[in-house]
Amino acid sequence: MPGAQGKENQIFLIFFIFLAGILRLYVEYISKYTLKIERVMKMNEDLSKIRQRISQLSKRRQMLENKIMNTGDILKASYYERFIVCGKPNCKCMHGEKHGPIPWITCKKETKIISTSVPSNNVTRAKEMTENYKTFRNAQKEIKKINNEINELIQEILKIKEGDIDEIIKK
After folding, report:
1. Using omega within 30 degrees of 0 as the cis cutoff, is the peptide bond preceding 101 cis?
2. What pTM does this model have?
3. SS (H, E, C) 7-65
């Protein structure tokens, strides 16, 4: 029966086309699923790197905070040594050999700038306190940089985790 063979071939062809369609849908599904998995893995890798960096920065910030807390007394001033000319006509300084070094300190108090010599009994303390101030300010500046970097990393996290509105509103 040649008609039956032709009918079987048609059924086989329809079944083959049906299977090919299912296979195509399956391949599309697997491709999309694989892309999603790769995207999630990349996102997790990026988040892990950010988390590690934030942890490093937090440890550094904690160390700097401890440094600030353990800084001794502070004098918000600049300490330096000057050489001066006294102005007396017969003095050696009038011929190039200046007086000094003279311990000197400059600071701003309210609206006034104070610039004066430091008594010899306070030189060591003035040096220590102005160095403590430098240490304090340097740590403070570094903490500010760290905080800025952490804020930038948090913005990166937001970008990584932010969803797509088109995926939410599509039907």
Report:
1. yes
2. 0.68
3. HHHHHHHHHHHHHHHHHHHHHHHHHHHHHHHHHHHHHHHHHHHHHHHHHHHHHHHHHHH
